[in-house]
């Protein structure tokens, strides 16, 4: 997913063209689509137009592209996360996450099939084992395995692998003050939303005195309320407190709704136990003297949708 050059090389080799020619075609395709797709995306289209399918070949991890339905890779397990159970809309299930690496890169693999998951649970596949994956579906920077995928231990021997994180995705126990990180975890606790008053013009905090509210810049104003929501995220390694302000809250619920106790409780109940991607900056909370993430982005990991998508692909 990261290595565009490798991808171009592979397309060139398979099509019997020079690299330069493939790159020219990629650029032309990108221009034709008004730059709406990435170079990697354009290269995938060019490959398809040339009749090249990557779907039956074994690829290097860096050659994986988003949207593949039959990705085949071999990699060494460099990280195993605890198996998680989830319940969503009356349906319960398990999901396991591992990180595999080869000499070109590493990627998260998400296992949804209980047969695959049991290989991890019973220790058949463990840290440092080499695994073979067939018919994986790539999504964002991950490979998702359904019941239609193959997942097994491989006899291949792998030398040095790329253990350096390819993205800023980290585990909670790895985060350090000042980092910009992306964490994937489950919400295990949600605190009462708090509100503060800001100037309706500049969104800065207002001061309150006997005569009402005033903004440093805009004088007397009728302030509006903005919400802050704190929750605790658990990714299986540790927990971390996350702070969300209006912009992120509004991605999940209109912040106004949090003032309505009934809606606020329903929202909390719905969100508890939900898996989220949270990106943001790691800061030290002076009051609690611990690290927290000030969210700049939140996105639900939509388990139902992933399952439906994977089943549809069978
Ligand atoms: Zn103002």
Kindly summarize this structure in a few lines.
The protein has three domains: 1-52, no CATH class; 55-167, Nucleic acid-binding proteins (OB fold (Dihydrolipoamide Acetyltransferase, E2P), Beta Barrel), CATH 2.40.50; 172-301, Nucleic acid-binding proteins (OB fold (Dihydrolipoamide Acetyltransferase, E2P), Beta Barrel), CATH 2.40.50.140. 24% of the residues lie in helices and 38% in strands. The chain has seven helices and 17 strands.
Description:
Strand 11 (207-209) and strand 12 (212-215) form a beta hairpin. The longest helix has 14 residues, at 19-32. The chain folds into 3 domains: 1-52, no CATH class; 55-167, Nucleic acid-binding proteins (OB fold (Dihydrolipoamide Acetyltransferase, E2P)); 172-301, Nucleic acid-binding proteins (OB fold (Dihydrolipoamide Acetyltransferase, E2P), Beta Barrel), CATH 2.40.50. The chain is of the alpha+beta class and 314 residues long. Helix 1 (4-15) packs across helix 2, helix 1 packs parallel to helix 3 (39-49) and helix 2 (19-32) packs across helix 3 (39-49). The chain contains 7 helices and 17 strands. Bound molecules: zinc ion (ZN).
């Amino acid at each position: 997913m990261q290595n565009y050059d490798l991808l171009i090389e592979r397309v060139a080799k398979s099509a019997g063209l020079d690299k330069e020619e493939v790159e020219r075609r990629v650029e032309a395709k990108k221009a034709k689509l008004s730059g709406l797709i990435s170079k990697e995306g354009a290269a995938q289209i060019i490959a398809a137009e040339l009749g090249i399918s990557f779907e039956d070949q074994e690829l290097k991890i860096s050659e994986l592209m988003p949207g593949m339905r039959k990705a085949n890779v071999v990699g060494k397990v460099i990280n195993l996360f605890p198996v998680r159970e989830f319940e969503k809309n009356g349906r319960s299930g398990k999901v396991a996450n591992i990180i595999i690496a080869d000499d070109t890169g590493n990627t998260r693999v998400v296992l949804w099939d209980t047969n695959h998951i049991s290989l991890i649970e019973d220790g058949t596949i463990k840290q440092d084992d080499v695994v073979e994956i067939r018919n994986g579906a790539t999504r964002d920077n991950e490979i998702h395995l359904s019941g239609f995928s193959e997942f097994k231990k491989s006899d291949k021997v792998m030398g040095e692998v790329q253990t350096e994180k390819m993205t800023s995705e980290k585990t909670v126990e790895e985060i350090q003050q000042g980092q910009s990180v992306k964490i994937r975890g489950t919400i295990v606790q949600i605190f009462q939303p708090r509100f503060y008053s800001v100037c309706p013009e500049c969104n800065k905090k207002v001061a309150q005195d006997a005569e009402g509210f005033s903004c440093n810049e805009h004088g007397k104003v009728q302030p509006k309320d903005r919400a802050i929501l704190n929750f605790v995220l658990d990714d299986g390694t540790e927990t971390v407190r996350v702070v969300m302000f209006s912009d992120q809250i509004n991605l999940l619920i209109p912040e106004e709704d949090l003032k309505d106790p009934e809606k606020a409780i329903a929202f909390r109940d719905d969100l508890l136990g939900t898996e989220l991607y949270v990106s943001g900056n790691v800061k030290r909370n002076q009051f609690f003297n611990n690290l927290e993430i000030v969210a700049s982005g939140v996105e639900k990991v939509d388990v139902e949708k992933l399952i439906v998508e994977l089943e549809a692909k069978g």
